[in-house]
Amino acid sequence: MKYAFVFPGQGSQSLGMMNGYEGIQVVRDTFSEASQTLGEDLWEMASTGPAEILNQTINTQPLMLTAGIAAWRAWTSHTGSRPSFLAGHSLGEYAALVASNALSFKDALPLVRFRAKCMQEAVPEGQGGIAAILGLDDETVKRVCIEAAQGEVVEAVNFNSPGQVVIAGQKDAVLRGMEKAKEAGAKRAIMLPMSVPSHCSLMKPAAEKLREYLGSVAINRPEIPVLHNIDMAPREEPDEIRQALVRQLYNPVRWVETIRVFSQEGAQAVVECGPGKVLAGLNKRIEPEIAVFALTDASALEEAAANMEETC
Questions:
Q1: Most exposed among 35, 75, 76, 289, judged by the fewest C-beta atoms under 10 Å?
Q2: Does residue 90 carry a catalytic annotation?
């Protein structure tokens, strides 16, 4: 049976997000490894917060990486099975690369923290905005952004599912985009609680800093193909992977196309590996015929493993 694993990104975090894995030793060991690497207790942060600390980009990114890899290790130790394909939504791409053994977990932790720092520095707190537009097709959202820009930056940055597109840029331009989207017939336009306008052109200064940092990070050829956000294509050469990660920072996440590639390649199931069910919901809307699982806790992991074994 062909199946794919996908890793969620920023926005899937919540207080207590790993409580359902508390008794799984490999999960606790993964958090201990991350805590020792970064010099702070990530399990405590994930468990008790406070929420404003958990939701700071510089904390969220290493936390979500750790949570995804902890769930991945729980899966592989429980099943001994590995997927045919991997992908991650935005930040989740780093977890996918760790799972593929292209990037070591120890190297990935300070890397994503550096990435978060560069992103926040590129657009100071309060100057950026990011919003979800529901109920419009992709081309209409792109047109709305062009009309709303008025000399500022607002761009379509996440193509998450049919009828769900995220826009990002300078805050006033995003607000104009939300209004124009409603005028164009959007069902809803919702400002998201994230201050960093990820995946828009405002991130180019952050991308240049990331490019320099990545030059000193060891990257290997992936053992499992990872579909990259920028073009849904896997890469084998380390320098090509570095370039994909740099470009990802200021280009859209093409999630709809990613899941459709999995389907075209014969994947019968897509498993979300990490906290929450955000990607599982998107994936079901993109390809309703593909089985969808979310490893939100130990019991969900066991259920997914049993269901997939029956399917085989």
A1: 289
A2: yes
Taking the C-alpha atoms of residue 248 and residue 245, their distance in angstroms, rounded to an integer, is: 5
Sign of CA dihedral 257, 57, 272, 187: negative
Q: How many residues does the chain have?
A: 312
199 is catalytic: yes
Bridge pairing between strands 226-227 and 154-161 = unpaired
Query: Cβ–Cβ contacts within 10 Å for residue 26, how many?
Result: 16
- Helices 204-214 and 238-248: crossing angle in degrees, nearest 10, is 160
Strands 188-191 and 164-170: unpaired
| Structure tokens, 273 | 């590996």
The DSSP call for residue 152 is: S
For residues 14 and 274, the answer to whether their CB atoms sit within 8 Å is no
Phi, psi of 134 (to 5 degrees): -115, 135
For residues 148 and 173, the answer to whether their CB atoms sit within 8 Å is yes
The number of beta carbons lying within 10 Å of the beta carbon of residue 71 is: 33
Q: Which pairing describes strands 154-161 and 164-170: parallel, antiparallel, or unpaired?
A: antiparallel
> pTM of the predicted model, to two decimals?
0.96
Q: Catalytic one among 12, 35, 90, 195? A: 90
Separation CA 101–CA 108 (nearest Å): 11
pLDDT tens digits, residue range 77-127?
Answer: 999 999 999 999 999 999 999 999 999 999 999 999 999 999 999 998 889
Contact 188, 203 (CB under 8 A): no
Q: Which residues contact 227 (CB under 8 A, 6 or more apart)?
A: 85, 86, 87, 233, 234, 258, 261, 262
C-alpha 117: how far from its chain's center? 17
Among the listed residues 12, 35, 161, 199, the single catalytic one is: 199
